[in-house]
Design brief:
The complex is a heterodimer of chains A (204) and B (301).
Chain A lengths: L24 E4 L3 E9 L5 H23 L10 E5 L14 E7 L6 H13 L10 E5 L3 E8 L5 H14 L2 E3 L3 E5 L12 E10 L1
Helix pairs in contact in A: 1-2
Chain B lengths: L5 H17 L7 H7 L7 H9 L3 H19 L4 H7 L5 H12 L3 H6 L34 E5 L2 E9 L6 H12 L10 E5 L12 E7 L11 E5 L2 E9 L5 H12 L13 E4 L12 E7 L8
Antiparallel strand pairs in B: 1-6, 2-4, 2-5, 3-4, 3-7, 6-8, 7-8
The chains are: A alpha+beta (204), B alpha+beta (301).
Chain lengths: 204, 301
């Protein structure tokens, strides 16, 4: 299996916003559009799993529907998530964690595309959670970013280094903790998981 | 229960090696060689490459050349006669192959002293009588393999006939047509069935089915057909890296792991399951699960 030969839109590859190294760095991000699902519960729980399943189902159905209609092709981006409490003290009870899981999508995707895809998936019996998928615009502006390699439970070390870097640069965290998943946790051992951590910052 | 051992596999493969040397003047088609050793013709070339360390066609060619080399030394026959016996139609073609194998032209080789054959993994060279020993590679004996039991699986598929590295086109078409109808919801299995080995079959003739798991509701139409992937036990290993390196992992699984597993291959093709999205994964991080069908173990009597 190989990728198509013709050049297609790829929001991820070659985008400096996704070029994090293990050392924290400042990165200027632009406005971005996502397919997103809000929820609460442990990342190991059913709600989180259903939200990811619904997101991917929608992302591929929308992409293929547009492509079939001759509206152009694009790569489906990596999974991302916002964890609003994670940069502070998330608490030990994972069932209370709030999250927004999301997949970046080209800005020409419309609410109508979402409605159509949700309808097709539901008709196919694969509609679990698809009605919760919404279009979301995010403009995080200036961020501190670092590549975390290792288990999700050890992110606190990388976050601490990012906080220190922000302070040295005269900045402080000012937005939801953001993760971009480069590895599939079902297939990659925890020690080798790659995750970009992103924290919006402001002067202060 | 009778278990097939590494010794059994080696004995069977040795029959093939001896048969090859005794019939170097014949065409030696794959089906015939597989039959000599009771290997399934679906898998024989991969088992051979994995166990012996070189593709079977390459092996046959090398032995013909080595026999020619020996004749150059020991017989007064002319170079062109020796070339014809080795299966070459012209002096030039023979000289070219001979040079690449021995580093010198046949006429020079005839005069030279102390020349040796190039080392090969199996250690088998042309000699009379044929060698009764060969080295099997063993690296793959330690590869991580899981035995999975699969239910029969209904798949929608599109056939590609042509070079393996062009199967992306048929995937593109299949996923677009199926995707717009919602068949990509629920993370369905995507698998490729390669009916021919890219290392054996000429590129233009390779048959490959791009398959997407579907439920009973799917009705085939036009360019998209339906088939059932056989259920039963499969040996499964993961290949990490570019798709054009899959052949190595196939050979390791079938030629090195399998002979040490106590199992035999079933008579249906292998298939590969695409775990990662090539649209957003770097080639060196692509993951592909290789499924090799296993024959049912004989029941205890």
């Amino acid at each position: 299996m190989t990728t198509a030969v013709e050049e297609k839109l790829d929001l991820f590859k070659g985008n400096p916003e996704y070029a994090a190294k293990t050392k924290p760095a400042l990165v200027k991000t632009g406005p971005a559009v996502y397919l997103a699902v809000d929820g609460q519960g442990s990342p190991d729980g059913d709600a989180f799993g259903e939200a990811i399943g619904a997101l991917y189902g929608m992302a591929f159905t929308i992409k293929m529907t547009r492509k079939f209609a001759g509206l152009g092709d694009y790569a489906v981006s990596k999974l991302e998530a916002l964890w609003p409490e994670m940069d502070g003290n998330p608490g030990a009870d994972k069932t209370q964690w709030k999250w927004t899981v999301m997949i970046r999508t080209p800005d020409f995707v419309t609410a109508g595309d979402l409605t159509g895809a949700a309808g097709v998936l539901t008709k196919r019996g694969k509609g679990a959670g698809v009605s919760k998928v919404r279009l979301m615009r995010l403009n995080e502006g200036l961020c501190v970013q670092a590549l975390h390699i290792g288990p999700y439970d050890e992110e606190c070390k990388t976050i601490a280094a990012m906080k220190e870097f922000a302070a040295k640069s005269g900045m402080k965290f000012a937005g939801a903790h953001h993760e971009i998943y480069l590895s599939d946790p079902r297939r990659v051992e925890p020690a080798r998981l790659k995750t970009i951590l992103r924290e919006p910052v402001k002067k202060g | 229960m009778k278990t097939v051992t590494l010794g059994d596999y080696k004995r069977r493969m040795l029959r093939v090696l001896v048969h090859i040397q005794q019939h170097l003047d014949e065409p030696l088609p794959l089906e015939e060689l597989a039959g000599v050793a009771c290997f399934s013709p679906y898998h024989f070339h991969r088992v051979f490459k994995g166990m012996v360390g070189e593709p079977v066609k390459e092996y046959v060619r090398r032995l013909r050349l080595e026999r020619a080399a020996q004749r150059l030394k020991l017989s007064p026959a002319s170079v062109i006669d020796i070339a014809l016996d080795a299966g070459y139609e012209s002096h030039e073609a023979f000289t070219r192959s001979f040079k690449s194998a021995f580093g010198m032209a046949p006429s020079q080789f005839r005069m030279a002293r102390g020349v040796r054959f190039v080392r090969v993994p199996s250690g088998v060279h042309y000699c009379e009588p044929p060698s009764k020993r060969f080295r099997t590679l063993s690296r793959g004996g330690r590869m991580k393999v899981e035995i999975k039991t699969m239910k029969p699986m209904r798949v929608a598929f599109m056939r590609h006939t042509g070079p393996y590295d062009e199967v992306g086109k048929v995937w593109d078409r299949l996923l677009t047509v199926m995707g717009k109808d919602g068949y990509l919801g629920g993370n369905p299995m995507m698998l490729g069935i390669c009916h021919d080995d890219p290392e054996v079959t000429p590129p233009a003739m390779i048959r490959y089915d791009a398959c997407l798991a579907v439920d009973d509701g799917f009705v085939p139409s036009g360019e998209i057909g339906v088939q059932t992937v056989a259920g039963g036990e499969y040996a499964v290993t993961t290949h990490t890296g570019p798709y054009n390196q899959l052949g190595k992992t196939y050979a390791e699984l079938l030629g090195q792991w399998l002979p040490r597993s106590g199992r035999e291959l079933g008579n249906s093709p292998c298939f590969e399951v695409y775990v990662t999205d090539p649209g957003n994964t770097p080639a060196e991080e692509l993951m592909t699960d290789i499924y090799a069908p296993l024959k049912e173990e004989e029941a205890v009597r």
